[in-house]
Each structure stands twice: as C-alpha cells, then as structure tokens.
UniProtKB/TrEMBL annotation:
Residues 1-23 form the signal peptide. Gene3D superfamilies: Mu homology domain, subdomain B. It comes from the Bacteria. Residues 305-417 form the DUF11 domain. It comes from Chryseobacterium taihuense. This is DUF11 domain-containing protein. One of its GO terms (molecular function) is calcium ion binding. Keywords: Signal. The lineage of its organism: Bacteria, Pseudomonadati, Bacteroidota, Flavobacteriia, Flavobacteriales.
Length: 519
C-alpha cells in the first residue's frame, strides 16, 4: 500500500510608492478557501479560486482578489478502463481526483508526503520560499490526484514499464504568464514494487504542436524530481517510503511553465514502475482500486492590473503660454509589476523643452519611460515640458505595459486632445496676435496704442481718442453673437459700449485709429 503526502505643455505621470517590505511581492495561490468541500472520485475538479497572498513570501495573509482568477483540473482519455479496476466515473477511469487509497477523499488537499517548505518556490519569490507545505502553519493546498495500479496488474503490464494512464488538463478562466506548478509526493509502492507519477506537457492552449523545448524549468525541489524537455519525471528507482521531510525517492518541487498568454496546459500522466525484485507486482490484487499513487498538484502565478489615466489643465492652449497634462500610471495589483514601461510620445504639435522623472528613465526622442518594477498598489510621476506649435498633432496618448499578465486591459491606455486657440496673425509676421507685442507691426506696442480690446463679456469702457469703433457683424465666423449698441467715432475722453445681446461670449469690437490701423 502507498503512504499518503503651466507655460509649456506638461505631461505628468505620478509616482506615489506605497510602503512595502523589501522583497515583498504578493502572488496568487491556492489555500483551504480556494475550493468548497467535496469528495471524489471525479474527473473534473471544479473551480479552484486563487487568493492573494498579500505578504508573500514571508507571510500568509490571504485576501480575496478581483477580478477572480480560477483554475479547473480535468481528466480525459483514461486508459485501462475495465470495470474490475476502475472508478465508476463517466467514462470509467483508474485516474481520478479526490481519492485516498481507493476511498473517497477531499478533492482539495494539503501537500501529500509531508515535504519540506524549502522544496517549493512561490511566484515572485526567491528560490525555496513562499509556499507553506508542511510546517505548523501550512496553508497551501492543491488538487488530490490518485491513480489506481490494480489495472496494470490485471492487464499484465511489465513492472518496469512506464504506462500512459490518461490526460490531465489545467484550464484558467483567463490567460496567465509563467505559472508555477507545485508537485508534492510523487512516489509510492506496493510490496517490492515502487511507482512514481510523471507528467509530459503535450499542449499549450489546445495547440496540436508540441511545446518548444525549454518551456519547463525546475525552480526547486528534491533531487529525484527532474525536467527533461517537456517531461517532469522522478529519477528514483529505490526506496519509495515517504517520511516527514520527504523521503529520498520522493518527487516534490516547483516547475515553472515559461510562456505568456497561457489559458490551458495539457499533460499526459504516466506511472513509472520500479520493481525491487522479480516478484514485484503493481498491486496486491488484480481487482479493486485500493492500491495506487497519490500526489498533490498546485499552481501559483502573478498578475498586475496596470492603469493609466490623463487630464489636462486646459483644453485650449495658446502658443506662448503653458499648459499641463497629468498622467497617472498605477498598479492596482495583485503583484509587483516587473519590466513596466509607459509610452508617452510628444505629439508633433509641441516642441520639447525639458522633463523630470520621479523614477525610471525617460527618452524624449522615443517617448519611452522605463519604470522597471512598479509595486502593487503604487503609482508613478513623469513631467514633460513642451511648447505648443501653430501646426501639428495635439492629441496626447499614453499606454502602459509590464511583465505580468494584466486582467483588465481596457485601462492600459488613454488619449486627451487639446484644441489650441485659432491662430490669428494680423501683421503676417508668423507670431500669433496673442503672443505678438505689436500685432499690427506699426512700431507701437499694443499696450500703448489703445485702452482696451473687449472680448468674452460686456464691452465695458474703452478709451481711444480719435479712433473709429467698428461693430463686427452679428454671427460672423470669427466673433459670433455680438451686437454693439453704439458705433461711431470717438472725439476724446471715455465712452461706454455694451453688448446688446446680454453678454454672450465669443465676440469683440475692433478699434482703428485715424490712419486705419487696428489698435
């Protein structure tokens, strides 16, 4: 039997780092709350919900995480489906979830085989840390896999063979990057026959093409646990007895699946036989399901919901005064985001002046701001100073990306589009009137030529001795909505002019001197 186991365009991208312990990187793991109670035998585990380990790798403070990330384990293509040595699932199968020594057991399980915590590596943690498998505070869980060996004796499978028993597929409800598999307790036996559960990765996301070599990487674990190409095996051929801390033949550890955008992983499951002598048998009986290999399979991963927003201090910039854009780049979690980059290129309608960055490095020629790691629940700030030009593109866009999978992509980019004031150049010198100190080019500064040009409200009072007041036509393209109640020539002193339309915005009057120059 087996043992159990403001004056220029300013772009602001803000950095407000939350207080984190050095080296802390929250990840998503399975705990006792990841699945409700339920026993096997089943071929579908039901959904396991990831919880956020907020103080990974040193602690076990778990919190619900939204939007929820789930994983479902399924068994398909079972082999050796005879009625004498299989479970009454549909289809019948010797390979199931939720069985211990042939009896119904919880589908969600602690780590079988009492392995050491140091055999495992959580996502985002240093090697040998972050997963609590056997200590007094052991909190991590996985799916219990059981494969009866009785049908191998019934079918006279050689005891030194490695028969294929069925497929196990891990399906995520959305794509993940670089998930880590935690295998605990590969290795069991019956009498003088040892056997070891092994896995071959055959498909990612349902692809018919085999995964590329190097897709699997062993991060940590016992010596017998190995990775060769797409195969996860146990090199032991000796004593299968499992003891606290993991026996010499125990196959326990963490294997990373290298890849992005992963929604499913399919493995062929094998049982490697290792007889001690010529009398060894796969099971004590050729009927029943009481002898078999049991192990735990768990998963951890990282996610970062990155968000970028922007606002403008004005949507109507001119060509001689400043404005600012504020862009917030934030990490809503769950995990610290490595390789974080914000693209914030300066549009052609602005001239670059300068920039400051509270973190990372900004290249004004490419618009790439390299932030590096942006921690969970933090934000960051970049300020770019520019000046508006009379021509070009004025829409400012920014986008953010990082090394983790992002569960919400709708908030990864944004655009805001200022519309500069109409470019008016009365004297044709290439300088807009709003910036030109002598916009009629008569050698007199505008400030000494005339008392007031009235815009955007009641006209008020103006002085312009010897000047002629011109009432612009009502509803003109340039200055719509004005109807001056009095027009004529000033002979000196002060004269009041009011907007007969009650102060409608958008118009002005023009005052000319006796020589016909616009004052």
């Amino acid at each position: 039997m087996r043992n159990t186991k403001s004056n220029s365009l300013v772009v602001v991208v803000m950095l407000l780092l939350s207080s984190f312990l050095y080296g802390q990187n929250p990840d998503l793991e399975f705990t006792s709350s990841s699945r409700g109670t339920g026993n096997g035998p089943v071929l579908n585990s039901g959904a396991f919900t990831f919880l956020k380990n907020t103080d990974n790798p040193s602690g076990t403070t778990y919190a619900a995480y939204t939007p929820a990330l789930t994983t479902t384990f399924t068994i398909s293509n079972p082999q050796y489906t005879g009625t004498n040595t299989t479970f009454g699932t549909s289809p019948r199968s010797p390979l199931v979830f939720g069985v211990s020594l042939g009896s119904n057991a919880s589908i969600i399980s602690n780590f079988i085989g009492t392995p050491l915590d140091s055999f495992f590596t959580a996502s985002g943690a240093t090697v040998g840390t972050g997963i609590l498998a056997s200590t007094a505070t052991a909190s991590n869980r996985g799916v219990r896999i059981y494969c009866a060996t009785n049908p191998l004796r019934e079918n006279a499978v050689p005891t030194n063979a490695t028969p294929y028993m069925g497929d196990i597929t891990i399906t995520f409800n959305r794509s993940v990057n670089n998930p880590i598999l935690h295998i605990s307790g590969s290795g069991g036996g019956s009498g003088t026959q040892a056997f070891f559960g092994e896995f071959e990765l055959t498909s990612i996301n349902g692809s018919a093409s085999p995964p590329a070599s190097g897709t699997l990487t062993k991060l940590s674990g016992t010596t017998p646990l190995y990775v060769s190409g797409n195969y996860i095996g146990n090199s032991s051929n000796g004593n299968y007895t499992q003891v606290p801390g993991g026996g010499a033949a125990d196959g326990s550890g963490s294997i990373q699946v290298n890849g992005t955008g992963i929604t499913s992983l399919t493995f062929k499951y094998y049982l490697k036989g290792a007889p001690f002598d010529g009398a060894a048998q796969w099971a004590a009986s050729s009927t029943g399901v009481a002898t078999g290999e049991a192990l735990t399979l768990s998963v951890s991963t990282l996610e970062s919901d990155l968000r970028v927003t922007q606002s403008a201090s004005t949507l109507t910039p001119d060509y001689c005064n400043n404005m600012s854009f504020t862009v917030n780049a934030a990490n809503n979690g769950a995990s610290n985001s490595p390789n974080t980059v914000v693209n914030a290129a300066i549009p052609s309608g602005y001239n670059y002046v300068s920039h400051t960055a509270s973190a990372g490095t900004y290249d004004s020629s490419t618009g790439v701001w390299t932030l590096g790691t942006l921690n969970d629940a933090s934000t960051a700030t970049l300020t770019i100073t520019v000046k508006a030009k009379s021509t070009g593109t004025y829409a400012f866009s920014s986008s953010i990306s990082g090394g983790n999978s992002d569960p919400v992509t709708a908030n990864n980019s944004g655009t805001i589009t200022p519309v500069p004031i109409t470019f008016i150049d009365s004297d044709g010198d290439g300088v807009t009137d709003t910036c030109d100190l002598d916009d009629d080019n008569d050698g007199l500064l505008d400030t000494v030529e005339c008392g007031t040009i009235f815009t955007n409200g009641d006209l008020g009072t103006g002085n312009g001795t010897g000047a002629t007041i011109w009432n612009l036509n009502n509803n003109t393209t340039l200055y719509p909505g004005w109807d001056i109640s009095t027009t004529g020539s000033l002979s000196g002193g002060l004269q009041a002019y009011t907007n007969a339309n009650g102060g409608a915005d958008g118009g002005r009057i023009e005052i000319y001197n006796d020589g016909g120059h616009l004052l």
